[in-house]
């Protein structure tokens, strides 16, 4: 499991990291990455507990990207970055530090497209959810076809998700075509924000209290699922052929194995 948010993704989850680790162990999973929004809060405790429970800890973050720092625009595109080795670990931490500086921070900690393009091969780059630049950037006011193609070519994996939502189905179909065109593999992400239905309800109450709302989120099941449950969700969604779904799920293992 790699696209996972805990209560450290402020106001976007009510689930403690230990509950996720325990669930992963219960399901026989072998590795876990916590992709908090814009930060790696509490990563040492997360690593120690995951290792204690027999899981491989993967150092990761769901960062915010911006097309430019020259003007104040809240584009805040989502992208997952995963440290592949110790050099990648240091590079990722440096990028997160940069994103919080006054020159970069605007409502959220951000790095620029250009800084993203200059990330080394010590970091694995995954396209993330519907808030990815691959989904949202083409609709932006000053979108550049050249920049968009460069973004498409810069990822190591394109992330498909199993939510039975019209926008997600359209996006998965687009990623499938891009994968075939650029020979970049698909990877299956769940964008998990809650352990179970109870924790999802807690999250909903928290967001209402803080007047936070996401359009169409009622059509997304962001709870923690087993392998078989995720397969069934993808089958019901029917946006990607079943053999490629199995391949995308296996790519989560390949990605985890590539991390030192």
Structure overview:
The chain is of the alpha/beta class. It has helices at residues 17-26, 43-52, 86-99, 113-117, 133-136, 145-154, 166-182, 197-209, 227-237, 242-258, and strands spanning 31-33, 56-58, 60-66, 77-83, 110-112, 123-126, 158-160, 186-188. The strands form three sheets. The chain has a four-stranded mixed sheet. It has a two-stranded parallel ribbon with strand order 1-2. Strand 1 (31-33), helix 2 and strand 2 (56-58) form a beta-alpha-beta unit. Helix 9 (227-237) packs across helix 10 (242-258). The two termini are 16 Å apart.
Give short descriptive properties of this protein.
single chain; 260 residues; alpha/beta; four-stranded mixed beta sheet; two-stranded parallel sheet; 43% helix
Task: Lay out the secondary structure.
Blueprint: H1 17-26, E1 31-33, H2 43-52, E2 56-58, E3 60-66, E4 77-83, H3 86-99, E5 110-112, H4 113-117, E6 123-126, H5 133-136, H6 145-154, E7 158-160, H7 166-182, E8 186-188, H8 197-209, H9 227-237, H10 242-258
Parallel strand pairs: 1-2, 3-5, 7-8
Antiparallel strand pairs: 3-4, 4-6
């Amino acid at each position: 499991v790699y696209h996972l948010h805990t209560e450290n993704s402020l106001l976007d989850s009510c689930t403690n990291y230990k509950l996720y680790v325990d669930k992963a162990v219960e399901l026989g999973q072998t590795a876990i990455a916590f992709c908090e929004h814009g930060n790696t809060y509490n990563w040492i405790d997360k690593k120690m507990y995951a290792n204690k429970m027999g899981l491989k800890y993967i150092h990761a973050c769901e960062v915010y990207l911006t097309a430019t720092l020259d003007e104040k625009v809240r584009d805040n595109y989502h992208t997952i970055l995963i440290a592949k080795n110790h050099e990648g670990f240091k590079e990722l931490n440096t990028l997160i530090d940069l994103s919080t500086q006054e020159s970069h921070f605007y409502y959220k900690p951000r790095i620029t497209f250009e800084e993203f393009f200059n990330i080394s091969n010590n970091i694995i780059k995954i396209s993330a959810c519907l808030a990815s630049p691959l989904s949202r950037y083409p609709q932006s006011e000053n979108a550049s076809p050249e920049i968009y193609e460069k973004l498409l070519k810069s990822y190591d994996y394109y992330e498909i998700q199993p939510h039975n939502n019209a926008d997600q189905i359209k996006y998965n179909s687009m990623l499938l075509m891009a994968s075939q065109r650029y020979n970049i593999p698909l990877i299956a992400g769940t964008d998990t924000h809650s352990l179970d239905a109870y924790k999802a309800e807690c999250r909903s109450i928290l967001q209402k209290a803080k007047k936070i709302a996401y359009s169409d989120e009622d059509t997304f099941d962001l709870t923690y699922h087993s392998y078989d449950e995720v397969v069934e969700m993808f089958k019901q969604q029917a946006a990607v052929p079943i053999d490629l779904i199995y391949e995308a799920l296996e790519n989560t293992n390949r990605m985890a194995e590539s991390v030192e």
